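Action item from last week, closing it out:
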Amino acid sequence: MTTDHQNHFDALFAAELEQNAYRIAVEAGRTILHALQDGITVTYKDLPSGKRSPINPVSNVDHAVEELIRERVSTSYPDHAFLGEETVDQFQQGSRFTWAVDPIDGTQNFVNGIPFYSCSIGIFEGAIPVAGAIWGVATHLGRAGVYHAHRSGALHFDGELLTKTRKISSGRLRGVAATPMGSERRAPEWDYRSLGSTALEGALVAAGVLAGARNPDPYVWDIAASAVLVEAAGHEVWTRSKNSNTWNRLIAIDPATFTNWRQPVVVANETASVELRK
């Protein structure tokens, strides 16, 4: 973090942003769950090519939730920029604050009825992620809920300070880390899973459920909120450019690259971050 940002960072305003992101995430989560009763319409962003089937689904619920969040943000903060996964071509750079939103992270899980997906709302001040909220259909309590935090603040769950998640299972010898399918399996003290929602994996790292998670090429809206949550929990966020083997702590992302930024990211506790960066 630069000295200039330290001098201008307003923790009280960041806390306000967190609370608003939390309230919007709660509403978004209700909308997502309600949609399960109404049916889901699916299309694909990528068209079939030769023998290759489409792999990038988007649903009517993705669009509806993103529009809901956009409306709430524009009402409360009309001078803030909005970067949504489903409307990335409408992003206008230049505002001091940018809301980076993935309305449903894990759409493939969602449209197939697999209960592991999330809604991610991250807020940048310039290049720095300063607040975030992630609604997850699966949490450490076995129910839907929202993890939220702001920079320099503590991790919360559904409005309450989250100091620990649950009692560790008696006799447990192995933890779990999240990596994509096909990744090299790493430290033998963990089992590895490909779970399908980068944002929710990050939230569960923050909550202490997962030891860590590694994603080879997330978008900004995938990691904006989880970066805040993970650091609020005292864990680590690392990235590197695709042309380098050197990992660095993720502090800032150039706003000029918001729409096309994709780099490997590791979110993890201190021990797991060492292994996942090898």
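Closing note: The chain has a mean pLDDT of 90.
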